[in-house]
Amino acid sequence: MKRLFWLLVIFSCMATFAWAEELKLAGEFEGGKLYRAGKINVVVMKGNFYQMGRQYGELMKNEFGEFYDMMIKQTGIGTSKAPYEVVLADCKAGLEKTPFYVREWVRGMGETSNLGADKQIIASQGLMAILFSGGACSGMIAWGPYTKDGATVVGRNWDLGTKALEPYQKFLTVAVFNPTGYGQSVADINYLGQIMWQSGINQSGIFYDLQNGAMCDPTVAKNRLSSNSALMSMLLESTSFKQVDGFFDAVRSEGGLLINVADPKQGACFEWGTADYRKRVDDGTGLVASANNFTDPSWRSMFAIPDGKNGGFTKERTANLLAMGKKERGQIDAKKMMEIFSTTIPLGGPTFPVEGELKTYYSIVAVPKDLKLWLNVRGLQDWTEIDLKTMFY
Prior knowledge:
Blueprint: H1 2-13, E1 23-29, E2 32-37, E3 40-47, H2 49-59, H3 61-75, H4 84-96, H5 100-112, H6 116-123, H7 126-131, E4 138-142, E5 153-160, E6 172-179, E7 186-191, E8 199-202, E9 207-212, H8 227-237, H9 241-250, E10 257-263, E11 266-272, E12 277-280, E13 287-290, H10 314-327, H11 334-340, E14 359-367, E15 372-377, E16 381-387
Parallel strand pairs: 3-6
Antiparallel strand pairs: 1-2, 2-3, 4-5, 4-13, 5-14, 6-7, 7-8, 8-9, 9-10, 10-11, 11-12, 14-15, 15-16
């Protein structure tokens, strides 16, 4: 039994070896460039959002064809289950809830991806809208006395309650936007061409990741603008944590969300409800962790989350992260954070085992002061370093 335990521990930590995969130039178009870090695509764009959309669409044209065909087949779009006209109308309505720059990016992609305008609108939302099920993400931010040098280190898992997205791992893409007319360049980590922004970092080192909070706040405020796009706008426009605070003070979410935000020196979890928000830091000296649960004690009207599987192991993942963070106080750097987010729930970590019904699809570690990311894309590629400094113009 002891031997089996240590084999499990060793297996859990095997993926923590990370390397700086050499970026290889794979294409250029109208000022945009496509690089590959092993199997991970990195698209670097510049110009206005329409121009960047054209760059992205052309550089990822082959991937878009395969992606769209796979999505149509898997979701049944075009059948009685999901009539094409209904799906297109829903996606157009979703696009209308986004800012002009997002619509321009989608328009540009449609011109060069070979999909055309309508298919591109479906491709930009259909994957998440139809296959998304039971978001169960988690994250942790450490800084100050918790990290080796005092600088912020971020970890994040992107999880779902379905196996349906497993074939799409090869489409995970780092999209780097260098927009004219905005204060900040931004890198988005997401599946191909998606406008439901999930995780990003800007050139000032402000990082955010989004987690589903619907178990606590299931309200849907249908008439509000897209919360995902609002977060992208926050990155495009913010250069300080004070501005991030101001954003959450001013904007309400269209659904219950938890947003972990970090800059090079600090971090917080914003429990972003449809009626109000709370800014939470678990240990004010340098640690915060979250996993789909509004835990600020001042909430009075949130739904309680059950223990175990019925609650998506939310309580357990949060407790595991806090325990690991406190255990590693003073020792956390990028490598240590990768070890933490490579540790499965049965072994005291936040990550779902490979064979489980709930799936960890990819993990991100970031050091905002260095503008560096490490990505672990399950079933595709282990921890890989991506240095964004030369990609932000």
